[in-house]
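Our preliminary data section would be incomplete without showing what the modeling component actually yields. Below, a chain of 472 amino acids is followed by its predicted structure, encoded as tokens that our downstream tools consume directly.
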Amino acid sequence: MRFAPERPLGRAVSTHPRAGDSAGNQARVCGFPRAHTVRAERRPFSVRNVQTFLTFLLVVVLVLGVNTILWSSVGVVRLIRARMSRDLPPSAPIPLRTDVAVMIAAKDEALVISETLRSARRQLPAANLFVVSDGSTDDTAAIARLFGASVLELSPNRGKAGAIIAGLEHFEIARRFPLVLLLDADTQLAPDYFDTGLPLFDSPEVVAVAGFASTTDEPRDQTLVGKILGAYRQRAYIAVQYLHKFGQAARAVNAISIVPGFASMYRTGILAHIDIAADGLTIEDYNMTFEVHAKRLGRIAFRPGAAVAYTQDPETVHDYVKQLRRWNLGFWQTVQRHGFHLRTFWVALTLLIVELVTSSLLMILFLPILIVLLSSTVVGGSAIDPGGVTLVFADVVPPGLLVLGVLLPDYALTVFAAVAVRRPLYLLWGLAFPLVRIVDAGICLRSLADAFFHTSSGVWQSPSRREAHRQS
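Predicted structure:
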């Protein structure tokens, strides 16, 4: 019996494709049909890779901060909307320079107050300048009179907040002027401070304009520590004001947590509703800002590059720690005083507080954790660590990943600041900034604890002053 030839059961796979043949399109070899391409097996899903990436992402977010990501995004939206509506007229008349009274509360500020008054005098008549010498023992009052300022001398001193209240009442500022600029004695106004700041009062609902802080240009003989601290402070100003504050000042949000007392403007009509010299607070500007929100007095305006002023920052570690502790203590005391409310500002404040605490803990624990991770290569599995706990920890958070997650985003902020102010040397000083951040973190948490046990009479605690140099 004859049988028909059997059909092949399957197609052969060519193991010797011709040169030039494309994958999946091999020519017949030795009479066999065209072969299918052998596909490489996909690598199995790696849980460890995902875990590593998520750990890195978590560290980056903790270092940069959810607030930075959130408010930067809001700021971008605000910038786009502003460009689209730039031709819209203001809903209220823009105040004039002569509508502004400048109030300076000072104690023993003879070294710096001359340049401060000169910067104001170039933009306003002398009749708009008011100085309260709060128990000064130097020539502060005499220098102020040389510039034509009206001077009130107090003895004994009442503290900065008390001096401000005394000046407002004595000179009847609220009756005579629609606006008041609260100016520190060591702060110089940019030449266009009022040209850029007054237009922000473009709506009746705007009751305060937060000044844009920038550190002063220091002489070339400044110490290395002073240069690093100054650059670090300038980076902080840039990061907070560009990446946080601009978004927080959006009309629909109004979540700015501080109108800094160094050089900011208020409508005088709301000052009677603000407890400027509240008991038990180290500083007054946080409380004044919280009062605006708590009593729904209006909106706080802010824009980078508007209402710019230059302020002296500490040059020594001692003065830096002293000033930062005072600022942090004042913040936590104000939070404790006002509590929380179901409003946008307090939701944003809660997010800020959570981030301050978590990021501070991360920075404080950074070096100890890094030491433990690096030591795992030595003691892991040994008699010192028979269970291999350090190896497991290092497997979850590799040392290199931790270093990159902390230092990379931190240095990115330094690059951003260096570009913003056009100072390449910041790229060098920035190598030391993580150490300063660790100091900041310790002060933040220490001040949080002190806020529950420490009260203040508001007495002056200014850092050491240096002779002021005129800013361009």
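Confidence is low (pLDDT under 50) at residues 1-45. The CA atoms of residues 248 and 254 lie 6 Å apart. Preliminary results of this kind motivate Aim 1 of the renewal.
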